[in-house]
Amino acid sequence: MSILQKIKNTVRSRSIHVSYVDVGSCNGCDIEVLACLAPRYDIEQYGIYVHNNPREADVLLVIGSVTPQWVDKLRDIWDKIPEPKVAVAIGNCPISGCVYARRGTLTSPPVEKYIPIAAQVPGCPPRPTEILNAILSVAPLIFKDYEEKQP
Amino acid sequence: MRSFVYYVREFLRPEWIRKFFFARTAPLETPSYFKGYPTRTEKECTGCFSCMMICPAPGAIAVLRKKDEWGPEVYPGHCIRCGLCVEACPEGVLSSGRILDVTDRDRTAFASWYHLEVDDNLCMRCGNCCVSCPVNRQIDPQLAGTGTSASDEVIMRIEGGRVRILHMEKCTGCTTCETQCPNRAIRVARMVEGVQLPEAEA
After folding, report:
1. What is the largest CA-CA distance in chain B?
2. How close does chain A come to B147, measured CA to CA in Å?
3. Which of A151, B67, B130, B194 could form a disulfide with B147 if both were Cys (CB 3.0 to 4.6 A apart)?
């Protein structure tokens, strides 16, 4: 392993930039994600920074069952994120549609149909600790030795 | 000047520097009373489907038969962790957080019954519902044809040219009447209500 790679690993483990997108949920999961920012959970002490620009992000938190308006836009957002990138599904909605998975609703879950999802956090809504654990456990898997893993 | 020196000295203390740069909240543990996904207790499931019927999330719980044994199965991607299945189960097969302790302490439970309703505008008095009902048939084997009956114990009978429901509480919710009704006039609904059981005799 080159020294450059080591430096990259160290830096990336302490600087995970997260962007979240709500593709049609009830806002419950948004509130839980925002609770991660609050002093009680405080994700910045783990080196995770939340901001809403996909071009600066490493991790995309996808919230909500997919509504028709989001189908193409979600793909655009995913394409804008620079490599290495990872998408995490937050809550039941991106996994199964949760309470929206009924006849007559304008949703088309799961979100895996549109973008590749690396981790899922089930729950309606998931607890902030669960979101935090998911990000912290999936980020090293993707970002560590990213350049060496490339074919 | 003195305050300036004071601040510099204060901020150069190793303890202060350590606290300032490496402060961390303690890792948060999930308290034991948080409602997690329902887990099985060692109680035996009778396959009454109370949990499935009360579940508000689509596809979250299924009562499956495995090796001659009924048992509920919870699907994490669908479950919303409301804990209603835990409360609704009469046997206490599922457990989540402290729900079982609280229901035991407060003696709360869900009572369920079946509500029958006949829309008189749609009903054409054929008596199919009264004749097809298996409970009716058991109570009054004579009941046939037009759905009239001499017995007062039947769930429903035709009286004076219209369906009269006598004993709604005997309904088992099989919905045979619903399927046999040509006009969808009769409807069976499962009603659930939270109740507090009387105090146990000491």
Report:
1. 108
2. 37
3. B130
Contact A92 B57 (CB under 8 A): yes
Average pLDDT, chain B: 86
| Tens digit of each residue's pLDDT (9 = 90 or more) over B169-200 | 888 888 888 998 898 899 999 998 888 888 76
Q: B75 to chain A: which residues are within 8 Å by CB? A: 96
For residue range A52-65, what is the model confidence (pLDDT) as tens digits? 888 988 899 999 88
* Six-digit token string for A46: 């783990």
B100 and B139 both lie in a single domain: no
Of A42, A95, A124, the CB nearest to B25: A42
Taking CA A140 as the corner, what is the angle to CA A139 and CA A141, rounded to the nearest 5 degrees?
90
The answer to whether domain A1-144 has CATH 3.40.50.12280 is: yes
Q: What CATH number did the domain enclosing B120 receive?
A: 3.30.70.20
Residue B13 lies in a domain: no
Q: Do B23 and A45 touch (CB under 8 A)?
A: yes
Q: Is A133 in CB contact (< 8 Å) with chain B?
A: no
Amino acid letter for position B21? F
H or E, element range at B22 = helix B14-22
| ipTM for this prediction | 0.79
Chain A: residue nearest B37 by CA? A123
Domain count of the fold of chain B: 2
